[in-house]
Design brief:
Helix content is 31%, strand content 26%. The protein contains 3 helices and 7 strands. The chain has a 5-stranded mixed beta sheet. β1 and β2 (49-53) form a beta hairpin. The chain is globular.
Length: 127
């Protein structure tokens, strides 16, 4: 995928592989289904996917990406291949990329797509 963090020049969706398109689609579905601000999906070292939306309770607040990473860890994943977030935001927060980095390492790609599912950027979790 073409790297781009400029929202006026989104990344080229056709450059994504089918597995990366899949996690964007899953993240987008979670966002729409749950009516939350963000949807996220991560793919572990075995190809399993974990999908989550934003958690916003009085006693617990988690971004969709941190929730998806937590689900992967709780299910026994030992590494991540990729992560995707669907959000109206222009960037993935550092704390979210840190969660991906903790499990997948600094080179793990974090894809950001808009609510329409079109990619906006990709960055390594360690950047």
């Amino acid at each position: 995928m073409t790297q781009s963090s400029d929202p006026t020049h989104p990344a080229d969706f056709t450059d994504l592989g089918p597995e990366d398109r899949k996690i964007i689609t899953l993240a987008r579905s979670a966002r729409a289904r749950n009516g939350v601000a963000e949807g996220a999906a991560v793919r572990d070292e075995t190809g399993r996917t974990y999908v989550a939306g934003t958690v916003s309770l009085d006693s617990l607040k988690l971004s969709a990406l941190r929730t998806a990473v937590a689900m992967a860890v709780a299910s026994g994943a030992t590494s991540l291949e990729a992560a995707a977030v669907v959000s109206a935001a222009d960037a993935v927060p550092d704390a979210d990329r840190a969660a991906v980095r903790d499990l997948g390492g600094p080179a793990t790609p974090v894809l950001l797509a808009g609510p329409d599912g079109l990619p906006k950027s990709v960055a390594a979790a360690g950047e």
